């Protein structure tokens, strides 16, 4: 009688269905939550305990202590508000003076100036910004821009004119266009004005 040959059992990598993966992940999450609950306790219970502790602390305080605590809280809020106002006033002053001094990027100037040289006083306003900007320009002269806007249509090496030079016709037509007339009517009005002059 011939013996049946058995092939060795070769196992490949084990594969899982999506349902099995979901079940394993859910079980791991549940075990993690249960472990956290054992170690730290229920978060809702902890919040309730903290609130109860705060109430007990307030109840144990005398009226004077409550007023002192409230006063300290209000003083911190006032100081914080004053600090925000001072920062906003300084930032505004720096941006305005930076534009007046021809600084290309007023926001960069705000970040680069020596803040120790600038202060805000309720009565006197912002102090030291001009000097701080002058010192910044002396240290970083590349921040100073050119007063003229660049002319993108100018040939290389020629700066843009300070003011665009318009002809009388261009000014007349531009004024009519600004007033809301269609271009054809604006040019027709200009032509009528020329015929009246001759």
What does the model show?
It is a single chain. A hairpin with a 3-residue loop joins strand 1 and strand 2. Helix 3 crosses helix 4 and helix 6 crosses helix 7. This protein is mainly alpha-helical and 198 residues long. Strands 1-2 form a two-stranded antiparallel sheet. The protein has seven helices and two strands. It starts with 17 loop residues before the first helix and ends with a helix. Among the domains are: 64 residues; 30 residues, no CATH class. It is extended, with a radius of gyration of 38 Å.
Which terms summarize this structure?
mainly alpha; 198 residues; two-stranded antiparallel sheet
Please render the helix and strand layout as text.
Layout (H helix, E strand, L loop, with lengths): L17 H23 L2 H18 L2 H38 L5 H7 L6 E3 L3 E3 L1 H11 L28 H11 L4 H15 L1
Antiparallel strand pairs: 1-2
Helix pairs in contact: 3-4, 6-7
